[in-house]
Design a protein that fits this description.
Blueprint: H1 21-28, E1 32-36, E2 39-42, H2 44-63, E3 67-68, E4 74-76, H3 77-83, E5 95-97, E6 103-106, H4 111-121, E7 130-139, E8 154-164, H5 167-187, E9 192-196, E10 207-213, E11 219-224, E12 230-232, E13 253-256, H6 263-270, E14 278-285, E15 288-295, H7 302-308, E16 314-316, H8 319-324, E17 343-347, E18 356-359, E19 365-370, E20 380-382, E21 400-415, H9 417-421, E22 425-427, E23 433-435, E24 437-444, H10 445-455, E25 457-458, E26 461-462, E27 473-477, H11 483-498, E28 503-505, H12 512-522, E29 526-530, H13 532-536, E30 539-544, E31 550-554, H14 558-568
Parallel strand pairs: 3-7, 15-17, 17-20, 27-28, 27-29
Antiparallel strand pairs: 1-2, 4-6, 5-6, 7-8, 8-24, 9-10, 10-21, 11-12, 11-21, 13-19, 14-15, 14-16, 18-19, 21-24, 22-23, 25-26, 29-30, 30-31
Helix pairs in contact: 1-10, 2-5, 2-10
Bound molecules: ligand 9G3.
């Protein structure tokens, strides 16, 4: 392939609107262009990468018995009403009406559609298990689409759904997909980690996320330094800590703490450690006001609060709510003497504190010698704190470390959430009607492309892993006026392609520097330079994009050497 024939309009400057590296580099490398906020055209180079990722995904899904189908993007409202989710996802759903005023949405996901399909065709346990998948555009009207392909409003997802007779079957399907995902991201040559995840609003218990490790990742994960435990921080459970205070419970006293609105201020004024204070965080939820308590040196994990209380939504309480609902004062909120309607959820470690300091619900005052149980009652006591670096691993108690990642895949056990709601049942061996036991499994295909860049780039551009590179090799004649060089470049490129190595040669009438710059920007794993010595000494220079390492191969055996190099890269 000639470079001049590829529609890859590279840019010299970094577009100002691009906040993250993958977005900047895909725009600069002529891979994507914006059509609307969070909606992009994939130009030929990006489309090649996507097709390579999809190919790997298809092979791994098929290897586990997955069957590919294609469902409509446009979905009728009825099936979403039946599952109860039409009302749950407000503005995030792209909604439309047809000429008869019938309601539809652009598919944000396909649990409803697939469950409706399978329920009408599957009757007997003999037809199970079934694993169906598709690779297709999905639509979510994010409030603030950003980070290029990392959080688009239209994106490519592979979604697979498993239907089993029972939980044992689900566990087998889940394991198949977990293994398939491990293979997919390994084959893409990405550094990744499967982590325990919160299964969230979707319900059910088991879930893992596949995280591509990258500094720029939105997700925070923890992993154990000793065992193989790894989890999203949202999910990470915690062992209760040792009691930190002992001694006699002293009488409650009120202290004047002017301008002390933070835990640090209060601890300093009272000459105590942060861990002797109680941090009170006020929330507004669909079940009314909820006050969450953690030790002063800890943070609240909102997801845990949401799950422990079975909430649908949770937000920080407004100042107005703190005054009106909590009858308190922003900055001085505490658990003692609150109105009855305030639900208190306390972290397990709070309940073990003795003579703690907490807000007094009066401007410029705190309470000292607060003793949980004696001075306030918690409605719920649970593990609600956020894991921190060096906290004990919930499996082996050794210290955990933190890392950042980009979620590129997630596997969920759905159990019967959708099959019950949508009545997808089968007849078991005894002729008894039972709901199918489901799982769902997603890979963000377009996000995987972006994540690969977030993990693999330098100041000159992208550094593609070989298996997903748009082309593995670029061949550059140094002097575009030298017909010998030009002809050799074309020949080398042709030979590589004949041997299954996707290659381009840069046929443009440009200075060598321009061609080298574009090559680095686009990120081909190997660059072959054809210069004067290639003609006089019959050697080609091969440079590895990742390490900068240079090899000289004879024109007689360069092919074998390049095949070998690409395999080890
Ligand atoms: C919606 C909207 C947004 C959504 C959903 C539904 C996320 C929704 C969760 C999933 C779970 C799995 C199949 C593949 C694996 C992941 N955002 N989720 O259900 F209506 Cl607007 O999509 N789906």
């Amino acid at each position: 392939m000639k470079f001049s024939q590829i529609y890859a309009p590279t840019l010299r400057e970094t577009p100002a609107e691009a906040e993250v590296v993958s977005h900047q580099l895909m725009l600069r490398a002529g891979m994507i262009r914006k059509a609307a906020g969070g909606i992009y055209t994939y130009l030929p180079l990006a489309w090649r990468v996507l097709k390579k990722i999809e190919h790997i995904v298809r092979e791994e899904m098929d290897a586990q018995g997955g069957q590919e189908l294609l469902m409509p993007i446009v979905q009728p409202a009825e099936m979403w009403q039946e599952s109860g989710r039409w009302a749950v996802y407000g503005d995030e759903m792209f909604r439309l009406t047809d000429r008869h005023d019938r309601n539809f949405c652009l598919g944000p996901t396909h649990e409803e559609m697939i469950t409706t399909l399978v329920r009408s065709d599957v009757r007997s346990y003999r037809q199970l298990p079934i694993l169906l998948y598709q690779i297709q555009n999905k639509y979510r009207d994010e409030i603030r689409p950003r980070f290029g392909l990392m959080r688009g409003r239209e994106f490519i997802m592979k979604d697979l759904y498993s239907f089993d007779k029972d939980e044992d079957g689900l566990n087998i399907s889940y394991k198949k997909m977990y293994d398939a995902y491990t293979n997919v991201f390994s084959r893409c040559k990405l550094k990744f980690r499967p982590v325990e995840a919160d299964s969230g609003a979707i319900g059910g218990s088991g879930s893992h996320e596949f995280m591509v490790l990258a500094e720029s990742g939105e997700a925070e994960i923890v992993y154990c330094t000793s065992c193989d435990y790894a989890a999203n921080v949202e999910k990470a459970e915690l062992l209760p800590l040792d009691e930190i205070s002992t001694g006699e419970k002293l009488p409650l006293t009120q202290v004047h703490t002017p301008n002390c609105k933070s835990i640090a201020d209060v601890a300093k004024l009272l000459h105590i450690d942060k861990q002797q204070t109680i941090k009170s965080i006020a929330f507004e939820t669909d079940q009314g006001p909820v006050l969450a308590l953690v030790r002063g040196d800890h943070e609240v994990n909102e997801i845990k609060v949401l799950n422990k209380l079975n909430l649908i939504n949770i937000t920080m309480a407004s100042e107005k709510s703190i005054i009106d609902d909590y009858q308190s004062v922003p900055g001085f909120i505490g658990p003692c003497g609150l109105p009855k309607k305030i639900k208190i959820i306390a972290d397990v470690n709070v309940m073990k504190m003795i003579n703690a300091a907490a807000g007094a619900n009066i401007a410029d005052y705190h309470l000292q010698n607060v003793n949980p149980g004696r001075d306030f009652a918690a409605d719920i006591i649970a593990d609600i704190r956020l894991i921190q670096e060096n906290d004990p691993c919930p499996h082996c108690a050794m210290p955990v470390k933190k890392a950042r990642g980009i979620e590129v895949g997630q596997v969920f056990k759905l159990f019967t959430k959708y099959s019950s709601a949508l009545k997808a049942t089968y007849l078991d061996e005894n002729g008894k009607e039972k709901p199918m036991v489901m799982g769902c499994y997603g890979i963000g295909v377009s996000r995987t492309m972006a994540a690969a860049i977030e993990q693999n780039y330098d100041e000159h551009g992208i550094i593609w892993p070989v298996p997903i590179a748009p082309y593995q090799v670029v061949v550059i004649p140094v002097n575009s006026k030298d017909t010998n060089q030009v002809q050799l470049a074309e020949l080398v490129c042709r030979q590589l392609n004949l041997h299954g190595i996707d290659s381009v040669w840069d046929d443009r009438n440009e200075r060598a520097g321009v061609k080298f710059k574009d090559a680095d920007l686009i990120g081909y794993p190997l660059k072959i330079t054809i210069g004067p010595k290639s003609i006089s000494e019959q050697t080609v220079e091969v440079k590895e994009r990742k390490t900068g390492q240079i090899h000289f191969f004879s024109t007689s055996d360069y092919l074998e050497n390049i095949i070998e190099l690409l395999q080890k890269l």
